[in-house]
Specification:
The chain has 407 residues and is of the alpha/beta class. It has 14 helices and 17 strands. It is 32% helix and 18% strand.
Length: 407
């Protein structure tokens, strides 16, 4: 029996002692090693891939190696076809270009890929054979609900985003594109499909895909492009499934923090949907060009009381808008200032320029209308430290890489 097969029954620290003492050595098994020459081909041709980004000198990476290998062996018995599931690894010291491509900021990082596309939600669960194997099994659960009658549409959950496809037959290129898009976006939308006679009433001009937005009275949106074009179909579905303003929770806080870009957060009471709609509208109107440099989020005031207290606010003060740069938190003057054209955008630009940081530490920037201000400037009170940085990955679980300056 291989030692790795009994690792889950051993205390991980005891196994580490054995490693250090030289009484055992990590067994790699048939994990696929990725490099610049093969990574795209291997990942693109697998429905699900779990990739271990590691460094040999990292003790957490050393501890994970035998567990990852044994989980691979377990899953390989259930899914022997490499087109179904791939377990792979990248030595980030030897292949720093790949590590940079996927923005690896800690070792070991287990990234999930679907049809070659990296998912934002990496594996962050327990580091055991059972937990990793269960995670992969969950990824293989059927991600498209097949409708047996169109009457099922009357029970669609309108609190979720739904994309529904109507196809003449399942064995078709159109459906294969739909299936691939659904696999990638399964965490963000509910995907449903109907075939043959069931779907015929909705196929007035051929195979048809519609999006049912949140809300009971919101009209459906029809995909007007070619289902043979994967890129076009995916871009349309992603735009519908992934909201511009996402909700931050304690469950997804770590992954959002690890994206490494500041948060613009609306704190609001859960029942206050009007303020959320106003915020979403202004973000879309003023800040769409900042997508990628700022994470637009909303948070439940009651659940996130601590960050509010950090900026001397309580749920009674909500709605409140704040910027968290992962070093400091800055408060938008008044929620009603959203009505002032360009003010929210200027708030974000002032973060990028460093103005918010300067003014918190040194008082308002001097202007031509206030001569002598430079000489009379007093040091302002320190801004509150970041609250959301505390949700970042733990140093007792990862070797963290620190290579960026934060405002």
């Amino acid at each position: 029996m291989k030692l790795t097969s009994i690792i889950p029954a051993l205390d991980l620290h005891y196994f580490t002692i054995l490693l250090v003492a030289g009484l055992c050595s990590p067994v790699w098994g048939e994990i696929t090693s990725l490099d610049a020459g093969n990574i795209d081909d291997i990942l693109n041709n697998a429905g699900v891939s779990l990739v271990n980004f590691y460094a040999d000198w990292c003790r957490f990476s050393q501890m994970l190696h035998p567990i990852f290998e044994e989980a691979s062996n377990v899953i390989r018995e259930e899914y022997p076809d490499s087109r179904d599931v791939v377990f792979a690894r990248v030595d980030c010291d030897q292949h720093s270009d790949i590590a940079q491509r996927y923005r690896i900021s800690k070792y070991p990082t287990l990234k999930l890929f679907r049809n070659g596309m990296m998912m934002k939600r990496e594996y962050r669960g327990q580091r055991s054979v059972v937990a990793i194997a269960d995670f992969i099994r969950q990824q293989k659960v059927q991600h498209i609900v097949e409708m047996k009658s169109l009457e099922e549409l009357t029970t669609v959950d309108r609190s979720k985003r739904n994309i529904i496809g109507y196809f003449e037959q399942k064995d078709s290129d159109n459906y294969r594109t739909f299936e691939k898009v659904a696999n990638i976006l399964r965490d963000d939308c509910v995907f449903m499909a109907a075939f043959g006679e069931v779907s015929k009433p909705e196929r007035f001009s051929g195979d048809n895909v519609i999006y049912k937005p949140l809300g009971e009275n919101v009209p459906d949106m029809v995909f007007l492009g070619s289902l043979l074009n994967f890129d076009l179909t995916y871009a349309w579905a992603q735009d519908k499934c992934v909201p511009l303003v996402r909700e931050i929770t304690f469950e997804n806080g770590e992954e959002l923090t690890e994206e490494g870009i500041p948060f613009l957060i609306l704190f609001h009471l859960k029942e206050d949907t009007q303020s959320l709609e106003k915020f979403q509208h202004e973000v879309a109107r003023q800040l769409i060009s900042e997508k990628g440099s700022i994470n637009f989020l909303h948070a439940d005031c009651d659940k996130f009381r601590h960050p509010l207290l950090h900026i001397q606010k309580t749920p009674a003060d909500c709605p409140v808008i704040a910027l968290d740069s992962f070093r400091h938190m800055y408060v938008f003057p008044e929620f009603s200032d959203l009505n002032v054209p360009g003010k929210l955008k200027q708030f974000v630009l002032d973060l990028h320029s460093g103005k918010l940081h300067r003014e918190f530490h040194h008082g308002p920037d001097p202007t031509e209308s206030t001569p002598g201000q430079e000489e009379n400037r007093e040091v302002a009170s320190n801004p509150p430290d970041s609250s959301f940085q505390k949700l970042a990955p733990s140093e007792t679980r990862y070797t963290l890489l620190r290579d960026r300056d934060e405002l």
